[in-house]
Amino acid sequence: MSISSALEKTLTNNSIIAAIVETLGTILLGFFLRNRQTLSQDAVKTLTSITTSVALPLLAFTAFLTPLNHQTLVQSIDVLIWGLIIYVILIVTMPFLYGRYGKDQREVLGVLTAFGSTTFFGMPIAGAVYGAKGIMYASVFNIGYRVFLYSYAYIKMSGEQLRGEHIKKMLVNPIIIATFLGLILWVSQNWMSQISSYSESNPSHVAFYRLDVTVPWLFSWMKLLAGLASPLAWLAIGANLAQMSFTDAIKNHTAWYYSFNKVIIVPIIMAAIAILANVTHLLPVDQVAMATMVIMMATPVATVAVNYAMAFNHQSLLAANTSLISTISATIVLPLWIIIVQLLGELPVFK
């Protein structure tokens, strides 16, 4: 397929266009509502809390309530491994992008570049474009992110040793619990007690905890709450933008340079690794897995990483400026990445 044909196919794909419009439209709506004081600061905090403690965990969990497919299982394992490898690569290489800066700034910018808002920003977009499979891959990919965010990033930003309380904080995170629970139940479902499904169209046997089949009304309610993740997250992102001070951030050249690295260079590295993996047949991934990983890498700086910088007074003003500029940049650039990964998916290596 030629580039023009692939581009036309992508730009006429209603699901892709809808995902882009939904994302940008809801972020702009959140910005407008907060700017008009329709959404108060407390309301924004509530939106964020509901999203991270209820909607996103359910989004991750319900994505695994699906039949066990060998190909998807293999892809999930590959995505898990690449999710660990990419953070090792980013941790080692990102500081070199800031060689002209002092040691302190270089280390902070390296951490901020390595860790993006993959959960709050990336996962809803992956789900909007690629459905349950995109959410599943995003959840598995995020395991490596959580491991390094609560260990390496904390140690680097705080200058302290990793303590048990930080490991506990990672393990009791609702999204981590939902991901591991969903993954374990999904992988083990064929060896669990089975219940007959008397669907006239597709009679089968499923694990007793496959709520989508055994208790469809409960599953429907869970899906309803999970469906809140995207709109609530995007509203909160827009509202948070309205609360930030633009004047200083826009004048900060380092914040713009950082944002270019975060939403352009980092996803390019991820795309190149995915293509190389398929060319060499080393942990190859399919088009959806590749696209999900690239989208996750094209997100703005992780809020947790910025909070580390502020909590330990470690280039806190710079971190705040990078948060604002990278969020604006990602909002503009992510739709382009959605189109780009669709085009990359037409390459022979992903067929």
How far apart the termini lie comes to: 12 Å
- Which CATH architecture would you pick? Up-down Bundle
Q: Reading side by side through the largest sheet, how are the strands ordered?
A: 1-2
Content-based structural category: mainly alpha
* Biggest pleated-sheet summary: 2 strands, antiparallel
Fill in the CATH topology: Na+/H+ antiporter like fold
How much strand? under 5%
How many alpha or pi helices? Answer: 16
Radius of gyration (Å)? 20 Å
For the record, the count of structural domains works out to: 1
Show unreliable segments: none
Classified by CATH, the class is Mainly Alpha
> What is the average per-residue confidence, as pLDDT, rounded to a whole number?
90
- Name the overall outline: globular
Helix content: over 70%
Give the H and E element order: HHHHHHHHEEHHHHHHHH
Number of E-type strands: 2
Subcellular location: Membrane
Organism: Fructobacillus americanaquae
Protein name: AEC family transporter
InterPro entries: Mem_transp_PIN-like
